[in-house]
Automatic annotation (TrEMBL):
Pathway listed: Amino-acid biosynthesis; L-histidine biosynthesis; L-histidine from 5-phospho-alpha-D-ribose 1-diphosphate: step 1/9
Protein name as catalogued: ATP phosphoribosyltransferase
Localization: Cytoplasm
GO CC annotations on file: cytoplasm
Organism ancestry: Bacteria, Bacillati, Bacillota, Bacilli, Bacillales
Keywords: Amino-acid biosynthesis, ATP-binding, Cytoplasm, Glycosyltransferase, Histidine biosynthesis, Nucleotide-binding, Transferase
Annotated CDD domains: PBP2_HisGs
Main location: cytoplasm
One of the record's GO molecular function terms: ATP binding
Domain comment, as recorded: Lacks the C-terminal regulatory region which is replaced by HisZ.
Domain of life: Bacteria
Top EC class for this record: transferase
Reactions listed under catalytic activity: 1-(5-phospho-beta-D-ribosyl)-ATP + diphosphate = 5-phospho-alpha-D-ribose 1-diphosphate + ATP
Description of how the protein assembles with itself and partners: Heteromultimer composed of HisG and HisZ subunits.
Length: 212
């Protein structure tokens, strides 16, 4: 029986492979995969997908384990076991926009890739807003007049700064997380534990190399 692991491609991919390498996994087959999406070794089947799809594959038991941004877990609330925090993919969720002294007049329009997070943020404030869902480059929305402000991820702040926008409020902090399928956690426990222990940031990095 092999352990099936879903990894997030894109921004988290390189940091994730670096981390696994530091934790003594031989990630060469993953680095050399080219356009191949799924790589099988003696003990593991590893595939790459977009963050939200990683959560879906783990929720449905196709993958036993996944590595995904906490922003995805907060936004989509998949029914998975949220196992451990990892020390990469560190970012914040913020309300941002064009700097202004004046209080907004009337109902604000907020552009975001994270409508659920944005909705509960404004609900908690007791402010009613109109949400516009975008799929990327959210910073464009206030510049082009589609929205007054945005709710989006900030890491270095470069994207905001270079587009003349500022953080108005930071309200969540995220990192990458290791998640598990609930039933795999019981059925494949003995297979999973060495992997989980190896990647747990609290544990000592191992010296024995295993092929991932
Ligand atoms: N600027 C950032 N700094 C650090 N981590 C980030 C940043 N942006 C996103 N992330 C984290 O990386 C994960 C993957 O982000 P990425 O931008 O690759 O995916 P995406 O938003 O689905 O984009 P795409 O549509 O281009 O695939 C996010 O879920 C988040 O956890
Ligand atoms: O604070 P920074 O370090 O500049 O990072 C923040 C940017 O990174 C993310 O976007 P991404 O690059 O993933 O592009 P996208 O918005 O098109 O998905 C996020 O949505 C911000 O735009």
């Amino acid at each position: 029986m092999k352990l099936c692991i879903a990894l997030t491609k894109g921004r988290l991919e390189e940091q994730c492979l670096d981390y696994l390498e530091q934790r003594a996994f031989d990630v060469t087959p993953l680095i050399e995969k080219g356009r191949k999406l799924c790589v099988e070794t003696d003990h593991f089947k590893v595939f790459f997908a977009k963050g939200v799809d990683v959560a879906t594959y783990v929720e449905n038991g196709i993958a036993d384990l996944g590595i995904v941004g906490e922003d995805i877990l907060t936004e989509y609330q998949p029914d998975v076991f949220n196992l451990i925090g990892l020390p990469f993919g560190i970012c914040r969720m913020a309300l941002a926009g064009i700097p202004t002294e004046e209080a907004p007049e009337g109902k604000r329009t907020i552009a975001t890739k994270y409508p659920n997070i944005a909705r509960s943020f404004f609900q908690e404030k007791g402010e009613s807003v109109d949400l516009v869902k975008l799929e990327g480059s959210v910073e464009l929305a206030p510049l082009l007049g589609l929205a007054d402000d945005i709710v989006d991820i900030v890491e270095t702040g470069t994207t905001l700064r270079e587009n003349g926008l500022v953080v108005k409020e930071e309200f969540m902090r995220f990192s990458a997380r290791c998640i598990a399928n609930r039933s795999s956690l019981k059925v494949k426990r003995s297979l999973m534990l060495p992997f989980i222990e190896a990647i747990d940031k609290e544990s000592e990095p191992r010296h024995v190399s295993s092929n991932l």
